[in-house]
Protein backbone atom coordinates (compact mmCIF):
# COMPACT_ATOMS: atom_id res chain seq x y z
CA UNK A 1 0.00 0.00 0.00
CA UNK A 2 3.03 2.33 0.13
CA UNK A 3 2.55 4.08 -3.20
CA UNK A 4 -1.12 4.63 -2.50
CA UNK A 5 -0.49 6.20 0.90
CA UNK A 6 1.96 8.67 -0.64
CA UNK A 7 -0.55 9.61 -3.30
CA UNK A 8 -3.24 9.92 -0.65
CA UNK A 9 -1.22 12.65 1.06
CA UNK A 10 -0.99 14.57 -2.22
CA UNK A 11 -4.68 14.11 -2.87
CA UNK A 12 -5.64 15.30 0.60
CA UNK A 13 -3.44 18.34 0.16
CA UNK A 14 -5.60 19.23 -2.83
CA UNK A 15 -8.85 18.56 -1.00
CA UNK A 16 -9.35 22.24 -0.23
CA UNK A 17 -9.89 22.82 -3.93
CA UNK A 18 -12.88 20.53 -3.72
CA UNK A 19 -14.16 21.80 -0.39
CA UNK A 20 -14.49 25.33 -1.70
CA UNK A 21 -17.50 24.17 -3.67
CA UNK A 22 -19.07 22.74 -0.55
CA UNK A 23 -19.53 26.22 0.86
CA UNK A 24 -20.62 28.17 -2.19
CA UNK A 25 -24.08 26.71 -2.65
CA UNK A 26 -23.35 26.37 -6.34
CA UNK A 27 -25.89 24.31 -8.29
CA UNK A 28 -23.55 23.81 -11.26
CA UNK A 29 -23.08 20.29 -12.57
CA UNK A 30 -19.83 19.87 -14.49
CA UNK A 31 -16.57 18.04 -14.99
CA UNK A 32 -13.18 19.67 -15.46
CA UNK A 33 -9.44 19.18 -15.24
CA UNK A 34 -7.51 20.89 -12.45
CA UNK A 35 -3.86 21.68 -13.16
CA UNK A 36 -1.46 23.16 -10.58
CA UNK A 37 2.08 24.44 -10.96
CA UNK A 38 4.77 25.47 -8.49
CA UNK A 39 8.09 27.06 -9.48
CA UNK A 40 7.48 26.28 -13.12
CA UNK A 41 6.78 22.59 -12.58
CA UNK A 42 3.38 20.98 -12.95
CA UNK A 43 2.73 19.37 -9.57
CA UNK A 44 -0.83 18.12 -9.87
CA UNK A 45 -3.19 17.05 -12.60
CA UNK A 46 -6.63 16.01 -11.46
CA UNK A 47 -10.08 15.39 -12.83
CA UNK A 48 -13.01 16.93 -11.00
CA UNK A 49 -16.72 16.12 -11.13
CA UNK A 50 -19.50 17.98 -9.33
CA UNK A 51 -23.26 17.88 -9.12
CA UNK A 52 -25.45 19.40 -6.41
CA UNK A 53 -24.02 18.18 -3.09
CA UNK A 54 -21.64 15.56 -4.48
CA UNK A 55 -18.04 16.08 -5.62
CA UNK A 56 -15.17 13.92 -6.80
CA UNK A 57 -11.53 14.62 -7.60
CA UNK A 58 -9.29 11.91 -8.94
CA UNK A 59 -5.67 11.27 -9.80
CA UNK A 60 -4.35 8.19 -11.58
CA UNK A 61 -4.64 5.75 -8.68
CA UNK A 62 -6.93 7.51 -6.21
CA UNK A 63 -10.19 9.41 -5.93
CA UNK A 64 -11.62 11.67 -3.28
CA UNK A 65 -15.43 11.70 -3.05
CA UNK A 66 -17.25 14.30 -0.95
CA UNK A 67 -20.87 13.42 -0.17
CA UNK A 68 -22.41 16.36 1.62
CA UNK A 69 -25.78 14.61 1.59
CA UNK A 70 -24.25 11.83 3.73
CA UNK A 71 -21.79 14.15 5.52
CA UNK A 72 -18.96 11.84 4.48
CA UNK A 73 -15.68 11.91 2.57
CA UNK A 74 -14.42 8.73 0.91
CA UNK A 75 -10.80 8.30 -0.17
CA UNK A 76 -10.71 5.50 -2.74
CA UNK A 77 -7.47 3.67 -3.59
CA UNK A 78 -7.97 1.80 -6.86
CA UNK A 79 -4.76 -0.25 -6.87
CA UNK A 80 -5.42 -1.68 -3.40
CA UNK A 81 -9.21 -1.90 -3.84
CA UNK A 82 -9.62 -0.13 -0.51
CA UNK A 83 -11.24 3.06 0.74
CA UNK A 84 -11.20 5.21 3.86
CA UNK A 85 -14.15 7.11 5.27
CA UNK A 86 -14.02 10.45 7.06
CA UNK A 87 -16.82 12.66 8.45
CA UNK A 88 -17.42 15.80 6.41
CA UNK A 89 -17.60 18.97 8.50
CA UNK A 90 -18.98 21.96 6.54
CA UNK A 91 -17.71 24.38 9.21
CA UNK A 92 -14.12 23.20 8.76
CA UNK A 93 -14.56 23.33 5.00
CA UNK A 94 -15.49 27.00 5.24
CA UNK A 95 -12.48 27.68 7.42
CA UNK A 96 -10.11 25.89 5.04
CA UNK A 97 -11.36 26.75 1.57
CA UNK A 98 -9.20 28.56 -0.93
CA UNK A 99 -10.38 31.68 -2.70
CA UNK A 100 -11.39 30.03 -5.97
CA UNK A 101 -15.07 30.92 -6.10
CA UNK A 102 -16.83 34.08 -7.15
CA UNK A 103 -17.08 35.49 -3.61
CA UNK A 104 -13.83 36.03 -1.68
CA UNK A 105 -13.51 34.47 1.79
CA UNK A 106 -14.45 36.61 4.76
CA UNK A 107 -10.84 37.54 5.53
CA UNK A 108 -10.36 39.13 2.10
CA UNK A 109 -10.50 42.89 2.45
CA UNK A 110 -9.94 44.04 -1.10
CA UNK A 111 -10.69 42.73 -4.59
CA UNK A 112 -9.59 45.04 -7.42
CA UNK A 113 -10.61 44.43 -11.03
CA UNK A 114 -7.63 44.50 -13.42
CA UNK A 115 -8.83 43.43 -16.87
CA UNK A 116 -10.89 40.95 -18.83
CA UNK A 117 -8.98 38.24 -20.66
CA UNK A 118 -9.30 34.68 -21.93
CA UNK A 119 -8.10 31.77 -19.79
CA UNK A 120 -8.02 28.39 -21.56
CA UNK A 121 -10.79 29.55 -23.87
CA UNK A 122 -12.99 31.07 -21.15
CA UNK A 123 -13.69 34.78 -20.89
CA UNK A 124 -12.69 35.82 -17.38
CA UNK A 125 -12.35 38.91 -15.20
CA UNK A 126 -8.96 39.15 -13.50
CA UNK A 127 -8.79 40.56 -9.96
CA UNK A 128 -6.04 41.25 -7.47
CA UNK A 129 -7.17 40.03 -4.05
CA UNK A 130 -5.46 41.31 -0.89
CA UNK A 131 -6.16 39.78 2.52
CA UNK A 132 -6.02 41.29 5.98
CA UNK A 133 -2.48 40.01 6.46
CA UNK A 134 -1.48 41.90 3.28
CA UNK A 135 -0.97 38.78 1.17
CA UNK A 136 -2.06 39.24 -2.44
CA UNK A 137 -2.79 36.94 -5.35
CA UNK A 138 -4.70 37.00 -8.63
CA UNK A 139 -7.99 35.30 -9.38
CA UNK A 140 -9.84 34.95 -12.68
CA UNK A 141 -13.63 34.60 -12.51
CA UNK A 142 -15.36 33.31 -15.62
CA UNK A 143 -17.83 35.60 -17.35
CA UNK A 144 -18.87 32.93 -19.88
CA UNK A 145 -22.60 32.08 -19.79
CA UNK A 146 -23.33 29.11 -17.53
CA UNK A 147 -19.84 28.94 -16.01
CA UNK A 148 -20.06 30.91 -12.78
CA UNK A 149 -16.80 29.83 -11.21
CA UNK A 150 -13.25 30.88 -10.67
CA UNK A 151 -11.11 29.40 -13.43
CA UNK A 152 -7.63 30.34 -12.20
CA UNK A 153 -5.69 31.47 -9.13
CA UNK A 154 -2.05 32.59 -9.26
CA UNK A 155 0.72 34.18 -7.22
CA UNK A 156 1.48 37.81 -8.03
CA UNK A 157 5.01 36.83 -9.07
CA UNK A 158 3.79 33.84 -11.08
CA UNK A 159 5.62 31.34 -8.87
CA UNK A 160 2.51 29.16 -8.54
CA UNK A 161 -0.87 28.86 -10.17
CA UNK A 162 -3.89 26.59 -10.32
CA UNK A 163 -6.49 26.52 -13.08
CA UNK A 164 -9.52 24.69 -14.40
CA UNK A 165 -9.36 23.37 -17.96
CA UNK A 166 -11.77 21.62 -20.32
CA UNK A 167 -14.87 22.49 -18.31
CA UNK A 168 -17.84 20.43 -19.47
CA UNK A 169 -21.28 21.41 -18.23
CA UNK A 170 -23.75 18.64 -17.51
CA UNK A 171 -24.43 16.06 -14.82
CA UNK A 172 -21.68 13.43 -14.41
CA UNK A 173 -22.40 9.70 -14.13
CA UNK A 174 -23.91 9.06 -10.64
CA UNK A 175 -21.60 6.05 -10.20
CA UNK A 176 -18.65 8.45 -9.92
CA UNK A 177 -19.93 9.52 -6.50
CA UNK A 178 -20.06 6.01 -5.02
CA UNK A 179 -17.40 3.66 -3.64
CA UNK A 180 -16.82 0.91 -6.23
CA UNK A 181 -18.33 -2.46 -5.40
CA UNK A 182 -15.98 -4.92 -3.69
CA UNK A 183 -13.67 -2.28 -2.17
CA UNK A 184 -12.65 -2.94 1.45
CA UNK A 185 -13.02 -0.23 4.09
CA UNK A 186 -9.90 0.56 6.11
CA UNK A 187 -9.29 2.79 9.11
CA UNK A 188 -8.37 6.44 8.58
CA UNK A 189 -4.83 7.17 9.92
CA UNK A 190 -4.82 9.43 12.98
CA UNK A 191 -2.61 11.97 11.14
CA UNK A 192 -5.63 13.05 9.10
CA UNK A 193 -7.66 14.19 12.10
CA UNK A 194 -11.34 13.86 12.83
CA UNK A 195 -13.18 15.34 9.89
CA UNK A 196 -12.78 17.96 7.18
Describe this structure in words.
- It is a single chain.
- The protein has helices at residues 2-13, 15-22, 90-96, and strands at 30-38, 41-51, 54-58, 62-67, 72-77, 82-87, 108-119, 122-131, 136-142, 150-155, 160-169, 184-186.
- The protein has 196 residues and is mainly β.
- The protein has a twelve-stranded mixed beta sheet with strand order 7-8-9-10-11-1-2-3-4-5-6-12, with helices on one face.
- Strand 4 (62-67) and strand 5 (72-77) form a beta hairpin.
Question: How is the topology of this model organized?
Answer:
Blueprint: H1 2-13, H2 15-22, E1 30-38, E2 41-51, E3 54-58, E4 62-67, E5 72-77, E6 82-87, H3 90-96, E7 108-119, E8 122-131, E9 136-142, E10 150-155, E11 160-169, E12 184-186
Parallel strand pairs: 6-12
Antiparallel strand pairs: 1-2, 1-11, 2-3, 3-4, 4-5, 5-6, 7-8, 8-9, 9-10, 10-11
Helix pairs in contact: 2-3
Amino acid sequence: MGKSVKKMITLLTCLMVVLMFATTGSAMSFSAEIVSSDDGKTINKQKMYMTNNKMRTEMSEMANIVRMDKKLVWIVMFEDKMYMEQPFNPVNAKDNRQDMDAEPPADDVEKVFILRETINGYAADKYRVTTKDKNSHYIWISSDPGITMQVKTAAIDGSWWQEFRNISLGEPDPALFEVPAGFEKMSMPAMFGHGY
